[in-house]
Amino acid sequence: MIYPVVAYGDPILKRVAKDYTKEELENVGELVDSMFETMEGASGVGLAGPQIGFNKRIFVIDSNLMIDEESDEKGYKGAFINAEIIEEFGEDVGFDEGCLSIPGVNGEVIRPEGIIIKYLDDELKEREEEFTGMTARVIQHEYDHIEGILFTDHLSAIKKRLIKGKLNNITKGKVPHGYRMRFPKK
């Protein structure tokens, strides 16, 4: 099932998402499949629960699409449920990020080059793994979503002023997009 992507301005994007309970985890596999389908249909590399209207700590990524063919870096495709970043390490690196919930807006975000994260995978196995490079960046972007943080929150004050009009247009549904979206109610 393809869900509409929640647009900038919807309050759910600014809420800290809730953990899944043991009982709620029983049917999470179907949601994971739908999240991948939604993400891929929108040509994204990551999608978090709040972005489809679920205030739950879940996100999916496929960083393979961000890895340069000539790079030694390996991409990663998977689901992260009840995730918790337990360590960030390495140099801070800038990269131009965008977001399915904020179409047509990009900006440089500085993030640590590596993380260690604890989570449940799509088979509900508990994992603790280290990720670096582009995969770490995609995970951190999606992790921010379940913490109620948008990439625009990381931008400089000047950049925020420059994109203010675009953000206002998104909240009004006045933005070109090539996938289903749900805009804030007026």
From TrEMBL:
Family: Belongs to the polypeptide deformylase family.
Residues that, per the record, bind Fe cation: 99, 141, 145
NCBIfam families: pept_deformyl, PRK00150.1-3
List of catalytic residues: 142
Catalytic activity of the protein: N-terminal N-formyl-L-methionyl-[peptide] + H2O = N-terminal L-methionyl-[peptide] + formate
A Pfam family hit: Pep_deformylase
SUPFAM superfamilies per the UniProt record, alphabetical: Peptide deformylase (SSF56420)
Any GO MF annotation of the entry: metal ion binding
Cofactor(s) required for function per UniProt: Fe(2+)
Alphabetized UniProt keyword annotations: Hydrolase, Iron, Metal-binding, Protein biosynthesis
Enzyme class: hydrolase
Species for this entry: Flammeovirga pacifica
EC nos: 3.5.1.88
Co-factor binding details: Binds 1 Fe(2+) ion.
Function: Removes the formyl group from the N-terminal Met of newly synthesized proteins. Requires at least a dipeptide for an efficient rate of reaction. N-terminal L-methionine is a prerequisite for activity but the enzyme has broad specificity at other positions.
GO biological process, one term: translation
InterPro entries: Peptide_deformylase (IPR023635), Peptide_deformylase_sf (IPR036821)
Protein name per UniProt: Peptide deformylase
